[in-house]
Design a protein that fits this description.
The chain has 380 residues and is an alpha+beta fold. It folds into two domains: 167 residues, Methane Monooxygenase Hydroxylase, Chain G, domain 1 (Up-down Bundle), CATH 1.20.58; 200 residues, Acetylcholine Binding Protein, Chain: A (Distorted Sandwich). Helices cover 38% and strands 28% of the residues. It contains seven helices and twelve strands. Strands 2, 3, 5, 6, 7, 9 and 10 form a seven-stranded mixed beta sheet that branches. Strands 1-11-12-8-4 form a five-stranded antiparallel beta sheet. A hairpin with a 3-residue loop joins strand 6 and strand 7. Helix 4 runs antiparallel to helix 5 and helix 4 runs parallel beside helix 6. The longest helix has 37 residues.
């Protein structure tokens, strides 16, 4: 309430109050709408990914230890939602008994990269057939080089967002009631030379899912068949996620410093003598143009098809609001002073300068409080 009261002190006429309150109302409405889920319609529940715990398995289920070494990541295209990576993938499992179909069917070729672009993929088996190691375990590996799709891209926290590059593996050769993947966290790693421009590598994470699909795939199944009663088919699905975060130092230097400088110039324009009319009006107008250019430049760091406001966009919206209020205040004060005559002019000038200094105090506080509040709402 004190903040609203301070703003209203800037103008004593109803028209100017309405203008200021209108600016604040528009900003608040846009801000509230930006936190509403734009989303997207709910997807069909016929396809479900559920976290999967390999510790709760039947003894009959074959556990396939799966590991990865990511050697390089390159050609990251956030606009297209793709990235290229190469490295090695291996799998190790207990040798099934003679006569078990899994003895011949499970091998490195049964693994599918679910988010790869097929015509941009290369594979090379390290050994043609699984060979037996200590403990009667089978081992087989391959080298891969492929282009992958980035399924989940969230830039709402830009310029402090995280970037997740997934390598998803699955198999349609067997269901989770037969065999599952178990991530070999201990031996899996990414190269120390792994790098994406503008981001810092945070680590390699493994996510294990059960991928269930409610479909009979067009098969004609007799009503008396046990398979007819099956409502969904579940497959093992393992994701190796390369986690990156944007460099905070780069974000502050490239994005926030110019905005801060523009706001400092805007505040100092309020402290200019009212008799210097031209700078008091042209500076806020120039700051508006500068903010528009800076915002457009920041958007070039993002994919062009983003349909929601980022954290940085909300900061810019608030800066636009402050600039508009400053411009309206300066226009009003200069206009009133120019119309004043005689002895009233000196007293009016003192009163108007006091009102603008009140606005300066309010702006300085809000430039600290509002970005922090937006941060809390965005990152909570």
């Amino acid at each position: 309430m004190k903040t609203i009261h301070s703003i209203l002190l800037i103008s004593k006429k109803r028209f100017h109050r309405l203008v200021l309150l209108g600016c604040i109302a528009i900003f608040t409405a846009i801000l509230l709408l930006s936190f509403v889920d734009n989303g997207s319609q709910e997807r069909s529940s016929r396809e479900v990914y559920e976290p999967f715990d390999t510790q709760q398995l039947s003894p009959d289920v074959l556990t396939i230890d799966t590991g990865i070494y990511v050697n390089r990541v390159h050609d990251v295209n956030l606009a297209a939602g793709t990235f290229a990576a190469n490295g090695w993938l291996w799998m190790s499992w207990d040798k099934p008994q003679e006569g078990d179909w899994r003895l011949d069917e499970i091998n490195i070729e049964s693994i599918k990269f679910m988010n790869e672009i097929p015509n941009k993929s290369k594979r090379q088996k390290l050994n043609d057939e699984p060979y037996i190691e200590h403990g009667n375990r089978l081992w087989q590996g391959m080298r891969f080089s492929s282009t992958f799709l980035i399924n989940n891209r969230d830039f709402s926290r830009f310029p402090f967002e995280k970037l997740e590059l997934p390598i998803e593996i699955s198999s349609d050769m067997f269901g989770i009631e037969t065999a599952v993947f178990k991530p070999n966290i201990k031996d899996s790693l990414a190269s120390d030379r792994l790098a994406v421009s503008g981001y810092e590598f945070r680590g390699l994470e493994a996510l294990n899912f059960s991928h269930s699909i409610s479909s009979k795939w067009g098969h004609s199944i007799p009503p008396d068949s046990p398979a007819h009663a099956v409502e969904s088919w579940s497959y093992p699905h393992l994701e190796w996620v390369l986690q990156f975060s944007r460099l905070a130092s780069s974000s502050i230097a490239r994005l926030f410093t110019p905005v801060f400088a523009a706001m400092v110039v805007l505040i100092f324009s309020l402290l200019l003598n009212l008799s210097v009319a031209s700078p008091k009006i042209t500076i806020p107008a120039s700051v508006l143009l500068v903010l528009a250019v800076l915002q457009d430049r920041s958007h070039k760091l993002l994919p062009p098809n983003i349909t929601y406001l980022t954290y940085m966009d909300k900061v810019y919206l608030f800066c636009y609001l402050l600039t508009l209020i400053t411009l309206i205040s300066s226009l009003y004060c200069v206009n009133r002073l120019n119309k004043a005559t005689g002895d009233d002019r000196a007293a009016l000038q003192i009163s108007l300068r006091s009102e603008q200094r009140t606005l300066v105090n309010w702006m300085c506080i809000s430039l600290i409080v509002v970005p922090l509040a937006l941060w809390y709402l965005q990152f909570d």
